[in-house]
Write a structure and sequence with these properties.
With 258 residues, the protein is an alpha/beta fold. 45% of the residues lie in helices and 19% in strands. It has a seven-stranded mixed sheet, with helices on both faces.
């Protein structure tokens, strides 16, 4: 992330309401956010994080107010370092959660080289804010321990709904963020020898939006959303459908030393 880009990201979160605006929009489609297929994706993401974090050193990229780093520690990590470009959010995290030597926070632009080796480098909705390709190549080579894991959850922008959301609701996004597309998926597969790409939400994305409006007084785990989840589980077995998902889990493992 160039200095200008890092500054723009910092200003967006420290001085504007990007996070709050995004959260408000997501609360309007609660059946997407908390529907069965989304919950399945969250469970998969947590299992992968738990397996990779257990009694290991973790770096949480884009930790925000610090909750995700605390959750990683609760999943069994030996130590967690949470970093974010927002001084305001890091201040909040330090005040609420920091435990020296166990759970620590720092304001850091991760696209510049940094010290430390970690068994899990984790992030949620952060790569699409960065010039992420050189970042991932560098941390994979310099900061990820042999046998370690890169684990991220990112939005996909190839589907029509996400494209429209980013084009029309600019107050919920920073100027430089760009959801992943097909070229990003191809790059990940070509760059890392051991990579898994796990989709979340196909039909449950548009159906969840409609369900949130029409069935707004019913829980997200309703008959319509359960049917969409079953369809999504079938669709995810079709590799060509992957770019049309709403979100993507990226799991990269570095080979252990011989």
């Amino acid at each position: 992330m160039s200095v200008d880009r890092a500054q723009r990201e910092q200003i967006a979160y420290d001085e504007h309401d990007v996070f709050e605006n995004s959260k408000r929009w997501h609360q309007r489609v609660i059946h997407v956010v908390h529907g069965p297929n989304t919950e399945l994706g969250e469970q998969r993401f947590e299992r992968l994080a738990r397996d990779a974090a257990a009694d290991r050193r973790v770096l949480d990229i884009g930790c925000g107010r610090g909750e995700s780093s605390k959750e990683l520690l609760d999943l069994g990590a030996r130590s967690v370092r949470g970093v974010d470009v927002s001084q305001k959010w890091i201040g909040h995290a330090k005040e609420r959660y920091e435990r020296p030597g166990v759970l620590e926070y720092a304001c850091l632009d991760v696209t510049e080289p940094f010290e430390g080796t970690y068994d899990l480098i984790f992030g949620r909705s952060i790569l699409h804010h960065l010039d992420y390709r050189p970042f991932l190549e560098r941390v994979y080579a310099e900061n990820l321990a042999p046998g370690g894991v890169l684990l991220f959850m990112e939005p996909l922008g190839s589907n029509v709904i996400t494209k429209a959301f980013h084009a029309l609701v600019k107050s919920a996004h920073t100027p430089d963020e760009r959801p992943f597309d097909t070229t990003d998926l191809d790059w990940l597969r070509a760059t890392f020898p051991d990579v898994r790409l796990i989709p979340i939400n196909f039909l449950s994305y548009p159906i969840g939006i409609a369900s949130s409006l029409v069935l707004r007084h019913r829980p997200a785990d309703n008959a319509v959303m359960r049917a969409a989840d079953r369809a999504d589980r079938w669709i995810e077995r079709r590799p060509r459908a992957l770019p049309q998902a709403r979100q993507l889990i990226v799991h990269v493992r570095r080979p252990a030393e011989a």
